[in-house]
Write a structure and sequence with these properties.
Layout (H helix, E strand, L loop, with lengths): L4 E8 L7 H4 L4 H8 L4 H22 L8 E3 L5 E3 L4 E8 L2 E8 L3 E7 L6 H8 L2 H9 L2 H22 L13 H4 L3 E6 L2 E11 L5 E8 L4 E7 L1
Parallel strand pairs: 1-10
Antiparallel strand pairs: 1-5, 2-3, 4-5, 6-9, 7-8, 8-9
Helix pairs in contact: 2-3, 5-6
The protein binds coenzyme A.
The site of coenzyme A (COA) has 21 residues, from strand 4, strand 6 and helix 6.
């Protein structure tokens, strides 16, 4: 895979049906997790997205989808075992996104567009001073969208570094993304390394962002049917 490219796969989870041979691609651990979902629709979306992840990554790795093995990195970030291929999954509503890159870690986040009534309160707890200023300065009807753009960019960083919930979101700034640019910051515990994050254009219904270690390069979208 070209190291200058990040591939983003759009996985449509609306109205999915699954054949038994597809479900058989999942590991025991994935099946156990699938069984824990209380609602059938959530279970189906989980299974369909994980089947898609396996089928997509299998093509890059030139392996059988059912034979792919995943391990958990720090804070539970799933990684493909015995491969330098990097990936990250996000799902929201009826859409999942899978980012794939060679070498450097990637992180992706996705949120379905919705009204967030307490956006400013959450921002003050989780976002940097500059991010709060930008959201607070916007007219009230626009704050929810700006909040979700900022949230997905921050999650894109936390999912790139793999820090997840332990990543102290207030301690770094992605406000450049709110101006349509790329944000960049130091990798946790490694001042010689950087992360970069960029917002994604996903149409009117979703907000998303993708991050990567080093630089992002070109982003290419693909659809998984
Ligand atoms: C997994 C996590 C990193 C993101 O969860 P989320 O936004 O609810 O869900 P997403 O759909 O974006 O991502 C889920 C996928 O991320 C992957 N993932 C799990 N742990 C991860 C980690 N530490 N780093 C990166 N990716 C991770 C998994 O593939 C997971 O998919 P699965 O549950 O189907 O296996 C979450 O545990 C977390 O820590 N969120 C941070 C919350 C927060 O404080 N955000 C502040 C933003 S200001």
């Amino acid at each position: 895979m070209n190291v200058a490219v990040v591939d983003i796969w759009k996985i449509d989870l609306s109205g999915v049906t699954l054949a038994e041979d597809q479900v058989n691609l999942l590991s025991n651990a994935e099946r156990t997790r699938a069984e824990r979902f209380r609602f059938d629709a959530e279970r189906l979306r989980y299974i369909a997205s994980h089947v898609a992840v396996r089928c997509i990554l299998a093509k890059y790795a030139d392996r059988n989808a059912g034979c792919l093995q995943f391990r958990e990195g720090a804070n539970g970030k799933p990684e493909l075992a015995e491969s330098s291929l990097q990936h990250n999954l996000a799902h929201s509503g009826d859409l999942a996104l899978l980012a794939v890159s060679a070498g450097e870690p990637v992180g992706i986040d996705l949120e379905k567009r919705r009204w967030v009534p307490d956006a400013m309160d959450i921002a003050e707890r989780m976002f940097s001073h500059r991010e709060c200023q930008i959201i607070g300065a916007a007219a009230k009807p626009h704050r929810s969208d700006l909040f979700l753009r900022c949230w997905t960019a921050k999650e894109g960083v936390l999912k790139t570094t793999g820090k997840g919930l332990s990543g102290a979101p207030k301690s770094f700034d992605v406000s450049a993304v709110l101006h349509g640019g790329e944000a960049l910051g130091p990798w946790p515990d490694d001042p010689d390394r950087v992360w970069v994050v960029r917002g994604l254009d996903l149409g009117a219904d979703y907000f998303g962002a993708v991050g990567r270690g080093g630089n992002l390069g070109r982003i290419e979208f693909h659809s998984w049917e």
